[in-house]
Amino acid sequence: MKNEQRIRRALMLLAIVISFFPARAQEGYSLPQAVEYAIKHNLNIKNAQLDAVSAEARIGEIRAAGLPQVSAAVALTNNIIIPRFFLPGGSLDPNTPKDAPPAALEFGIPWQGSASANLNQLIFNGSYFIGLKAAATYRELAQKSTTSSKVQVAEAVTKAYYSAQVAEERAKLLDLNISRVDSLMRETKAMNESGFVELLDVNRLEVQINNLQTERQKVQNLIELSYALLRYQMGMPANEPIKLTDDINAVDVESLRAISTGNDLSYENRIEYSLLNTQEKLAGLDLRNIRSGYLPSVSASLGYGYNAGADKFSQLFTNNWFPNMVLAINLNIPIFDGFSKKYQINQKKIAIDKVKNNQTLLKQSIDLENNQASINIKNAFATLETQKRNLTLAEEIVRVSKIKYKEGVGSNIEVINAESSLKEAQTNYFTALYDLMIAKVDLSRAKGELYTEK
Hints:
By secondary structure, the protein is an alpha+beta fold. The protein has a single domain, classed as Outer membrane efflux proteins (OEP) (Up-down Bundle). It is built from ten helices and eight strands. It has helices at about 1-20, 30-40, 45-65, 125-195, 200-235, 255-260, 270-290, 315, 340-405, 410-445, and strands at about 25-30, 70-80, 85, 105, 110-125, 240-245, 295-310, 320-330. α2 (about 30-40) crosses α4 (about 125-195) and α7 (about 270-290) packs antiparallel against α9. The longest helix is centred in the middle third of the chain and has 68 residues, at about 125-195. The model is unreliable at about 1-10 and about 10-25 (pLDDT under 50).
């Protein structure tokens, strides 16, 4: 009695403590909302967006090469040992013999200082102007790479979402089956106690319930795994509560059939093809960049500064500082580079040919993907219709077998077999429905319609 009172007080205390920490509400997500969440939080997309930001910085770096370049320098020199300048013997004194040794004269002073500023400006360079044209294409490539990552994430999230939905529906059906068989077992127990059926019939139903409960636990584990995968694809924390608001049973199969029968296929809708087009433009600009190396380049520089010298450090800042200024125009004319650019041009031409081959190969791959997806979705429709009919028949068989058993004209084994067939039909139906949804995703992916930028 005392133990029961202690347990009751402990439970009350636990309930009070729990009341101060309300459970986090599960946030509901439709499929579009789940995809949108993933677009904002998936780390692969964030990395692609960082690459786009890096591309902008690279574009700025290219543009900066044509802007004025200004630098400043300050130097302080202490000639601890002043170097000497040698003159031929007798050059200072005509009376010195001709074979006299050279005269070694100090050339410089102990302390020197200088301060200067330099301005460099590029006037003409073919590679620079080609680089400016390539900058916009480079930006376009980075943006399309980000879009490609979004398409991949949208596909992964959609498939994970459907997987979690189907697992939940299977769990609901198993709960219904367990409840139905449990009700039948209670009725059979009552009939056994009244002497109408054998204990063996009760045992058979109990075995079936145990098997259903075991399978229910497996499906529950599958649900948890499906949700973990969905959170991962969405970029959501592993312990974040989540609820799916879409109902897979509400899918309009006829609208999917209309989508599957369309033959509208445009290569430009595929982000991979668009990426190759941009790569082709970059390869062409790369070729023009090499060819521009044959053109002369012109630049100008302007330098202005002061310098001073003194025998003592203290005098360096009191003596006069003398100004100096230099203006230079530099013209660089390439004449012969040992055919280096010729071979570089040949390599760039080969790179362009490879891009064009990849475009042709991608077109063939897109055609194959579209044909496979179209066939798969047709097969999925046929399988779903068959499994739907099988499910209807299995439900009718269960209903009739139970009536026959209750009326004494059917066997317990017949009921158990009918229940097993119904469970199998239910599993096959939702497997077929899942395959149809995946086939729809693959077809939309093949046509480039799975995800589009808003």
